[in-house]
Amino acid sequence: MIKSGWHVFRQLYRAVCLGLFLGIFQTPGMGQVLNDSIPVLLKIDVEENLGDHIPLDLSFFNTRNKPVQLKDYFTEGVPALVVMAYSDCPMLCSLVLDGLYDGVSQMDRFPGEGYRILTVSIDPEETPGMAKRKQDLYLERFTEKISPESWDFLVGNEPQIKTLADALGFKYYYDEDLKQFAHPAVLFVLTGEGVISRYFFGLEFPSRDLKFALIDASQGKIGSTIEKLILYCFHYDPDARGYVLFAANLMKLGGAVTLAILIIMLATYWMYERKKKNIQ
């Protein structure tokens, strides 16, 4: 009961924070904050580049202050969940990262077990030390030890950050008045070859959707036979921004199961009758 109440509280907290974030950009006399006529909001967007490769030769620094390239985090068959955020973000980045943690923590595989998570800072002034403090907050929450490489936080210079953001279709900008970055809330799913496989929008990422997206991105190399069977009954709906039940496949699977049961029943009956005759 306490756990359920805490979950409701977190949901309300996220909704209020998102509303406050959007409210920051609402000008007097303007009705809906998500009105396309508001110029500042036109700078915040996501252009879906599904199927495109991101440049894996981009250079950054990890939380151990070691120079790395994106290709160090991409291995064939091992997908990655990517978030563009920054440590000093007053609310939205933490909410996205909290939602991601909630989703992966409810999966039966933690980061490093068939997939990786990568958080790349959009703030060129962020240092490896700042990124490490943020990284530690999340790695310490897991019930098992997670290596820094499994959920790494990268910092870099503006050209490298901008190039990656453009490849992902992530549009953001720095508000000089507020002294903070304005950006969308989005999670990117990439294949082990650095191909953009899926976009998830918002502050919540259900573990089932994440699991299915990782199975898709890894071409079936993640997930048990049962999980792949369940995935057969679901498909990704771009409008719903998630995986929904696919009636046609469900009917096919139901028919196959019914046929299998019928064959087993007939085989059992046939063996019983044969055994009965042999006894006589």
Structure description:
With 280 residues, the chain is an alpha+beta fold. The protein folds into 2 domains: 1-41; 44-225, Glutaredoxin. It is 40% helix and 18% strand. The strands form 5 sheets. Strands 6-5-4-10-11 form a 5-stranded mixed β-sheet, sandwiched between helices. A two-stranded antiparallel sheet has the order 1-7. A two-stranded antiparallel sheet has the order 2-3. Strand 10 and strand 11 form a beta hairpin. Helix 2 crosses helix 5 (207-217). It is elongated and about 95 Å long.
Question: Which helices and strands appear, and what pairs or packs with what?
Answer:
Blueprint: H1 2-24, E1 45-46, E2 59-61, E3 67-69, E4 80-85, H2 92-105, E5 116-121, H3 128-139, E6 151-154, H4 158-168, E7 170-171, E8 173-175, E9 180-182, E10 186-190, E11 196-201, H5 207-217, H6 225-232, E12 234-237, E13 242-245, H7 247-279
Parallel strand pairs: 4-5, 5-6
Antiparallel strand pairs: 1-7, 2-3, 4-10, 8-9, 10-11, 12-13
Helix pairs in contact: 2-5
